[in-house]
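PROTEIN–LIGAND DATA SHEET

This sheet pairs a single protein chain with one bound small molecule, pyridoxal-5'-phosphate, given as SMILES. Inputs appear in the order they were entered. The predicted three-dimensional arrangement of chain and ligand is reported afterwards as a C-alpha cell string under its own label.
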Amino acid sequence: MTTAVLDESQIPTHWYNIVADFPTPPPPPLHPGTREPLVPDDLAAIFPMGLILQEASTERWIEIPAPVRELYRLWRPSPLRRAVRLEEALGTTARIYYKYEGASPVGSHKTNSAVAQAYYNAQAGIKRLATETGAGQWGSALAFACQAFGLACDVWQVRGSYDGKPYRRMLMETYGARVTASPSEVTETGRALRERFPDTSGSLGMAISEAVEVAAGDPDANYSLGSVLNHVLLHQTVIGQEALTQIGMFDEEQVDVLFGCAGGGSNLAGLSFPFIRENLEGRSATRIVACEPKAAPSLTEGEYTYDFGDTAHLTPLLKMYSLGAEFVPDPVHAGGLRYHGMAPLVSHAYHEGLLEAIAIKQREAFAAGVLFANAEGIVPASESNHAIAGALREARRATEAGESPVILIGVSGNGQLDLPAYAEYLSGDMLDS
Ligand SMILES: Cc1ncc(COP(=O)(O)O)c(C=O)c1O
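PREDICTION REPORTED AS:
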C-alpha cells in the first residue's frame, strides 16, 4: 500500500483545541492600550463572535458546522502516502510518509480555515472580508471561500508576490476577489508605510495593517487572518486527526519525527497538535520539528515576547517568538514563510519543549523540492520545500546511523504557481538566503 485512503465519513467531525491539554496555560493576548488581557468585545470590530469564542476557548473539541464539513468534502480527507520512490532515490533506511494538502481547490491547506472563517462571518451578517496574502495561497483560499458563502473579498497582496506571482492574483480574481498590492495608496497605513519605506517589496506585517484598517472602518466588513491566531490553528487540526488514522493504516506504531514548514504556524500546528496530544497522553513519543526559513527565523533566532502582529501596531499584543513587527525579511520565494512572528500556540509549545525548530536556506529547500518532485511527481509549494528539506536531513542522518525512523512530512501545498521560483533555482541564480 502506498496511499491511505479514508472515506468521506472519516472527515473529522470536530476541531481539536490543544489549549485544553497544554500542561501550562498559554499567555493571553493583551490590549495594546491597557496591556490588560483582551476581552471578547475588544475583537468585535473585526471578527464575528463565533470566531472570537473559538479564539478564547479552552474546550478540547469544537464541533465543525455542517455547511463547513460539507465544503470540506471537495478536498477532504486528504491523502497520506508512503514516499516509496523518494526513499529509493535517497537509498535511505528511513520510512518516509507525507500528508498532502496540495489537492485542495486552491492548492494548499489554507482552505481548511478559509471556509470556516467565511461561514462564521456570513452567519453574523457580514458582507465583505478584508485580508492579507503573502504567497497568494491564503488570498486564493479566502477568495474561494467568500464566494461560496456569498461574501465579497478584498485582498492586500504583499508587493513582491503581487509582482512575482501574477497567476495567483488572476486566480483570486477568478474567484471574484479584488486584489491590491501592499503597501498601497488606498489606506492611510499604506500611504504612511510607502513614505517610510519607498522601495519596499512589502511584508505580511504591512499587508495585515492595511486589511485591519479597512475592516475596522466598515461595519459591514470584517478582517480575516490566514495563520497565527488560535482559531486558525484550530481549523487546521483536521489535517493531523486524519493523519493519525492514516498512519495506523500502515501498521506503524508511531511517527518518530514529524516535519512541517512554519510561517505563521498554522499548517505545522494543524498536522502536529493531534500528535502532541498523543505524546502528552503517553501513547507516543513523536518528535515535532518546525522548519522555518533562514530569512525569517522567528523560533530559532527571535525573542519570546509580547509583540504586535502587524507593522502599524493595529493588532493586539501577542506573546510569541518574534523578530520584531518592523522586521522585513529578504524577498525569498517562500512568501508564506516571510512573517516576523510565530503563532502564540506554536510559540508556547516550543517554549514548553513540546516541539523543536530548525532554519533552512532556500537553496537547500528547493533542492529538496526538486528531488521530491522527480520522485513523487508532485511539485511542492515553495513553503512546503522547507519541511521536505528538514525530513531529508533526518533521513540521511538515519541512513548513516543505520536507523529506520518513521518520518512524516507535512506537504502543505503544491507549487504549480511557484514555477518561476523553481526556474530560478534550476538556472543557478537563486540567492542562498
Ligand atoms: C503552501 C503554504 N504552506 C505554508 C504556509 C505558511 O503558513 P503557515 O505557517 O500558517 O502554515 C503558507 C502560507 O502562505 C502556504 O501557502
